[in-house]
Please model this.
Amino acid sequence: MTTATAEVAAPARPLQIALIGNPNTGKTSLFNSMTGLRQRVGNYPGVTVEKKVGMLFLPSGPANLVDLPGTYSLSATSLDERVVIDVLSGHAAGMPKPDVVICVVDATNLRRNLFLASQIADLDLPMVIALNVWDSAVKQGINIDVDALSKRLGVPVIPTVARKGTGVKSLPAAIADAVDNQRKMVKIEWPEAVSNSVEEIRDAIGDSADVSLTDVEIRRMVFDADSAVLRHLDQVNPGVRKAIEKAREVLRQLGLNPMAAEAVLHYKHLEQLVEGVIRQQGETDAGATESIDRILIHRGWGLVVFLAMMYLVFQSVYSWAGPFMDLIDTAKGWVQGIVGGWFDSTPMLQSLVTDGLIEGVGAFVIFLPQILILFFFIALLEDTGYMARAAFLMDKLLSWCGLNGKSFVPMLSSYACAIPGILATRTIEDPKTRLATILIAPFMSCSARLPVYILLIGAFIEPRYGPWVAGFTLFVMHFVGLAVAIPIAWILTRFVLKSKAQPFVMEMPPYRIPRLRDVVWRMWAGAQEFITRAGTIILAITVIVWALLYFPRPPELAETVTAEFIAEAASANELSPTLIAMELDDPDSELATELGHRVDSAYINQSYMGRMGKAIQPIFAPAGFDWKITVGVLASFPAREVIISTLGVIYSLGGDVDEESGDLRQTIANAHWTEGPLIGKPIFTIPVVLAIMVFFALCQQCGATVAVIAKESSWAWAIGSFIGMTILAWIGAVIVYQVGSLFG
Amino acid sequence: MVSNISTLNDLKIGERAQVVSLDADDSINQRLMVMGLLPEMSVTMVQVAPLGDPIAIEFEGRRVSLRRAEAAGVVVESKKQSS
Model:
């Protein structure tokens, strides 16, 4: 595993390396360049912070590279930020303390970027500095004496251009140097009063902390305006806060504002360190960014470009995905046909494989084209630096209901499909804003609702009111969800999540040309995670619903239905039952197909799902639903578009009908109540049709979305979202039906 | 030349000023300071979003967007030609 020179004391575990840096420094590019495809993505326990770990091979053996979230400082205000200092202090569950830290700094803005390095120096960890975007610095006439900088800081400094892979090869030697010679960056000298305070606070904490806090962690409590650690300790030991307040008072007596002291002292320390090392040749040239921004964040043009850009993204996700989704759908049907053929002798197994398993796999694979296309655009928007501008332009529009500018793209994406939309919320740093955006995303009218609208509008609205009203209805249906979602977001952020007004301090990075490799990596990672994690759950839900629709299955039912059918057909055609039975022997005959549908319908009728539909129908009666619609609603919980094939089966048309199917339109238009107070009246009146559409607009009928919400937040939120949306959908449908009936 | 004490909010697009102090909420001050906005530094108002909020500022080669409510806490001294 190691070279011949390896010592006996070589570490038993792989070397642990942490990668850290400000946002937008090209940290992710560097991570991808160093590890290639050998990476695992997960979450840190308890928080929704993405944990990325990659493998790399150093001359000394294998090493783990942990990509920490991009951050400007080590302050631990939120739990999410806490992750960074936890990992660096060796307090993260299941993660050894790093042996060395690679700090990625932007060479075009060295002083500001070294702030984080200076904070890490305080942690006593060996460090390597990657001086990234070196090419831009050279182009801008920034002259950095790398050797002098390395000597001054006391750690190896490697100029890199992560996008091109330049300098990445020099990192392993630098890492080895830093580890072997324990190269640590020159530390800031804290005033003696600070060191004394740390000891006093440590005494006050006693054994009330779960882990023994490092000096740095204790200092953080003094400096951070709102420390997550202190909030936690405060609950067990109020003495700690007193000690902290005392330490702050000591600082004030020294003439230092405790909230500003850390920044001021670090920057002073850095000024001394880099003095004379950086020279600016000629005028500072902010590059193209300034001129591009003149258009892109302009009050008028900025909006025009933004709307055009969003239209392009939305249109592409919507229309480019279409052919691929059709292809997947066709392939699914083809596989069902072939695989189904292998099980001809065992109908139960055949149905389980074709209608359960393959249908279930298809139910999530079908979303892949949309996810890939949306991730492609999100990677482009982020890596170019435009995403921050989009958030800047849209912030005001969303801030009043507790969201922020970064919620816009996920919301818009959800109009194509909530799943990529929810995954896109990862760009929102604030966890509460992110959760609120996740929870309202499924209200946006996704493309799977479209077939339902088209079927019902085509069957009832268009024939009666003409194409204009039909088009208008379709348009309005796309806003029903949004209209409900906005007050929901307001209530959620204000009363449920109780988020404080979050500051919206966001860097607008320089524009850069994205690297194809990073874009492809994002698409791949998104797709892979979706399939492995959401896929299993969707598959399970689909199989359960299949079972409820398939069982019980008494064989005598088919015989009874067949006997009735033969008798009926014989008298209708004035033929002998024997002749009819002979014709039925040909499975392709019209009569046989009709009988097949009749049998399917009879089985659904007495299946567990059918019985549930009949039992639950009284709940949906105030919305004007009969038991068949109720079964359709229940069966479409895994995927809302299933309602069309389910209605097809229940109304004896077979399962292969679609929203354009004239047969289904006619049949449901002719369906009448056969019992109850409305007997003889048509079931699908305009209020019922509108109620069904509103129900589908507001209901969370998508197993994949529920699974993704669970993965991105927690099962509690996923189930809460599911129940909440179902209740809202019911209320919406009842109101529409009741109000509609007053006019109808 | 006359110095005018005002806040970041009052700057016109393209106007440059010097930071006097950060008097916003502590956690906002800290966020701005770690990004490099410190007293005595010069800061430029770059742009105002189409709906009037937030604003974009530039300091030390960094472009940062922040909301008006946050910018109101940054006291600046602008050096304008007196009329």
Q: What stands out?
A: Chain B has a mean pLDDT of 86. The radius of gyration of chain B is 12 Å.
